Amino acid sequence: MDSPTSRRGGAANRREALARRGNVQRPALQNELPAYSILNDERSERVLELAFTILEKIGIEFRHPEAPRIWRGVGADVDGARVRIKRDLLLKLIETVPSEITLNARNPERTVTLGGPRTAFSGSYGAPHVLDFDNVRKSSTLEHLRNFAKLAHQAKTIQINGGVLAEPQDVDVRLRHLYLVGEPLLLSDKPYMGAVTSRTAANDTVKLSQLVFGEEFVDTNTVVGSLVNCNTPLVWDETMVNALEIYSRANQAVICTPFIMGGASSPVSTVGACAMIIAEALTGMAYSQIIRKGAPAIFGCVAQTISMKSGAPLQGSPEPVLMNLIVGQIVRKLGLVWRASGLWSTAKVPDMQAGYESIMSTWGYMLAQANWIIHSAGMVEGGLAISYSKFVQDVEQIDILYEIFKQPKFDDLDEVLETLIKVGPGGHFLGEAHTRKNAFYIPELSDANSYEQWRDEGRRDAHQVGLDRARKQLDEYQAPPIDDGLRDSIGDFMARRSREILSGDFEQ
Question: Are 224 and 252 contacting, i.e. CB atoms less than 8 angstroms apart?
Fold first, then answer.
């Protein structure tokens, strides 16, 4: 009998089948379906024109001691912190932003290239709480951070580890950046994310990166991506500009991301919100090019609306889907790499609400071919908490997206017809050779058994199944190889910088 892995296509398809079933790393998703364009050319231009008009007439504030002077030096109209930028100047500046960005990993086999129709994924970001294994919502700790870094390392559809997977509140806030960067470096060999909360945090990330890869390599290659947020509406604050400058000078990627909450930080207008996203993100990217021409910069899009009843953010609602479609179309036109936010949910537990909100959130950015999806696994409570159960469930949902966004195969149709002729009317296909060597996708975490079997096996719901899988994966975690000297060097750096920071005797 043919084995399940002996599908058409030889070794490549066998590797793909193995990846689908096991914990083998999947590369960035290669989106084989056409990108969806929601606007005609005239309306696309109107969105861009509104964004440029915002920057020319209203401007954007760079609340930083040096940035306005730097903007004036390239020809912007500057009044205090307010910077007004004409369309031609902005477009000229972003011409040098790379259209593809490679994030080099400690293990070269994990290196990821972003851009075009490729999509990579990283976990949730920024959670100060964890929905723990005992179903109790707790403050995030260093142990939680390490656990999620381990799960992200094992997750076959997560290509980029780290970021603020869980904010370790049992670590002094002045030292947290060392652990947010250092732990993923030690526990995983995938690309990672940098810290941006201060000049110290950004500089230490660069130094850690140089320690791992070497100063010369870091200066000519990108090894870390860092999230810098514009304070919507229309403010780049000093902390974010500092981080943007430090990473751009070091040739490391900045993800210039407005945080739109429609109705609160932007007008109650889908198109108006998109214009603000475009205006804010492009100014950050343009500034990176003033600092270092050709520095890697990524267009960031976080699109949310708020409930006019409570003021709470809404996720899985229709307008953010449309915003991602519109923004994606504009960004593809500009030839930029862009990120979106993933399987969002405001649900407090991984329940039905969490499921439908998360899946609804995916369609806009997937159809628009976003290149990096942050918040793609584990997020509940609108990002205030991360769930072990939802993390592993989301990883499988991403795996399903891999199957959706590829072309159906046509090269076995002769065999299909032969099988149909053989079976004939009224027959079945279960025992046929074509059936034995092909299979539809079977989600591992979904229960398709009979009611009686489900009952006899403990009546476990999806949340419990996810918890059990997360526990199993943590038990099975094996750290990737790392040179003993490098491990010691990272640990020594973290210890030394901790002493210096706590004593107040340190460089910014």
Answer: yes
Alpha-carbon gap, residue 224 to 247, rounded angstroms: 9
Strand partners, 314: 305
Residue 201: the pLDDT is: 98
Give the model's pLDDT for residue 7: 35
Q: Tell me, what's the pLDDT at 10?
A: 44
CATH numbers and ranges of domains, the chain: 1-405+421-508 (3.20.20.480)
Cβ(371)–Cβ(337) below 8 Å:
yes
Instruction: Tokens for 380, please give them.
Output: 């509940």
Of 348, 403, 400, 406, the C-alpha closest to 379 is 348
- What single string gives the DSSP state of each residue in 139-189? E--HHHHHHHHHHHHH-TT--B--SSSS--TTS-TTTHHHHHHHHHHHH--
Are 193 and 227 a contacting pair, CB within 8 Å? yes
Q: Which of 172, 156, 161, 75 is nearest to 124 (CA)?
A: 161
What CA–CA distance (Å, rounded) separates 115 from 337?
A: 5
- pLDDT at position 206 is 98
The DSSP call for residue 458 is T
What is the distance between the alpha carbons of residues 291 and 282, in angstroms, rounded to a whole number? 14
Task: Specify the 3-state DSSP secondary structure of 275.
Answer: helix
For residue 120, which phi and psi values (nearest 5 degrees)? -110, 160
Predicted confidence (pLDDT) per residue in 297-326, tens digit: 999 999 999 988 888 888 889 999 999 999
Separation between Cα atoms, residue 353 and residue 373, nearest integer Å: 21
